[in-house]
Amino acid sequence: MLDHPVHPTVVHFPIALLFTAVFFEIFGFWIRRESYRQFGLWLLILGLVSGIVASAVGFWGEEAVVATGVPQKAVDRHESLAVITLVVFALLLFVRWRVRDPWSVRNRTVYFILAVLGVLLLGTTGYFGGDLVYRYGAGVQKQATVATPSPGTAPTSTGHDERN
Hints:
With 164 residues, the chain is mostly helical. The chain is built from 5 helices and no strands. Helix 2 (12-31) packs antiparallel against helix 3 (34-67) and helix 3 (34-67) runs antiparallel to helix 4.
């Protein structure tokens, strides 16, 4: 097993790609430009593939996260939302490939509902992933305690520029 958690390194790719895919698809529908929709399709494919990779490494690192004291229930909630999110985006990709007339009102409505649902789930999944880090400290090393100077004494410099 790696010393550094891999999931936080790769998870930003599917988030960015899937949000952007939906944007380009909807914008392409709105201005009726197939090139935007094609770009959105490729982003959707890349986002789905990278989402599968992010989920796989997340599952792989779950045991280490739970071993640090993060509640299993919180991890399971994030995992379940991630799987549901990937399923919705997979359905979106299926609809995108199978639709014969993308400009019909019915097809646009189905696609738009799935896209909005996917984006909402993606944001919710990310929120609970951030909760694992910021509330429970998942994947975060505990920092050493810094000695506090006594009242009336000047703090010592660490040698680092603390403005950054």
